[in-house]
Design a protein that fits this description.
The chain has a 6-stranded mixed sheet. Helix 6 links the parallel strand 9 and strand 10. The chain starts with 5 loop residues before the first helix and ends in a 14-residue tail after the last strand. The chain has 310 residues and is of the alpha/beta class. It is globular. The longest helix has 23 residues.
Length: 310
């Protein structure tokens, strides 16, 4: 029998646990959560729109712009780029291009981007996780980890499903590598996040666990309301975000911790499904903004533990 990866083992074990839980739920008359069928984009479109969808920021649409830059995905004849799939046999229809992160996904109507939470609906891009976190906890800020910002403070911490990276060693893969249809979620709009943070005497709201970039609209609205209420906001991110949305975010939050996955482009591409250069640009932009910045490098043995790169 061939060797399997840690993730393959965990997925297999989780599947067995889900089967057992599903059988128990069926016998008791309770419904196990419904898994969405797989479409071309990996997630079936949500019909009708959920109460937790809101129009996304930072995108362009063929409905308004008339055209998109297909070369961003496919490259040029002289320098073609590899793509996992083409959106349609013929390039027609209403597409959107999400400009939130450097992937700049071009998304066909009814499909979602790589993050699994941003969906094209008739030429308008929607976030499908607004006010709909799958993880809500009160943590010490050191658990984020922030070691030089408000030591010992309690952080009211939230996350939604989804991520724009594909880190092979992700410890939170059960929420980061699935769409919101496959997590158990809370109805928690920004004003309730602020209210609960105050109720639990947490002076800080933390956007963490998965990847806050992909629930950008939810995070931004919550941070602004929190600031009005005297609460601080901290972001725990991989830093794979475009400059314009990052600058707007820096103006709304108080501290950002960047997970620098490694210092090698091949590692980022092969292990994380991203690129190093935009992350380095993110770090520079945060530093120049003047807000508190911390950088953490998680060392994964055999993957990014080269002493020359630490």
């Amino acid at each position: 029998m061939g060797r399997i990866t840690r993730r393959q083992f965990l997925i297999g074990a989780g599947a067995l646990a889900a089967c057992g839980a599903g059988a128990a739920a069926a016998l008791s008359g309770n419904r196990w959560w419904e898994w969405s069928p797989q479409g071309a984009g990996g997630v079936a479109p949500s019909e009708p729109p959920t109460p937790w969808s809101t129009e996304a920021r930072y995108y362009i649409s063929t409905a308004a712009e008339g055209t998109l830059n297909c070369a961003a995905c496919h490259g040029t004849l002289e320098e073609p780029l590899p793509v996992s799939y083409c959106h349609l046999p013929e390039h027609h229809g209403t597409f959107v291009q999400c400009n939130l992160c450097p992937h700049r996904c071009i998304i066909a109507d009814g499909e979602r981007g790589r993050c699994r939470v941003r969906e094209n609906r008739g030429g308008r891009l929607f976030s499908m996780v607004y006010g709909n976190p799958c993880a809500v906890h009160v943590d010490p800020i050191e658990k984020k980890p922030f070691y030089h910002y408000l030591p010992t403070a309690a952080a009211f911490s939230i996350a939604t499903a989804g991520c724009n990276l594909r880190c092979a060693y992700c410890q939170n893969w059960s929420i980061s590598q699935v769409p919101p249809e496959q997590t158990e979620n809370a109805d928690l709009p920004p004003e309730d996040v602020v209210r609960y943070a105050q109720q639990y005497n947490a002076p800080v709201i933390a956007y963490t666990y998965s990847e806050p970039t992909i629930f950008y609209e939810y995070m931004l609205a919550t941070a602004r309301l929190g600031r009005e209420a005297g609460l601080r906001s901290v972001v725990i991110s991989a830093g794979f975000i475009n400059p314009d949305p990052l600058r707007e975010l820096c103006a709304a939050v108080d501290a950002i911790k960047i997970d620098l996955k490694g210092y090698d482009e091949d590692f980022y591409r092969q292990v994380c499904g991203a690129e190093l250069k935009p992350v380095l640009e993110t770090i520079r932009t945060i530093y120049e903004s003047g807000i508190h910045l911390e950088i953490v490098n998680l060392v994964v043995p055999t993957l990014n533990d080269d002493l020359d790169q630490l």
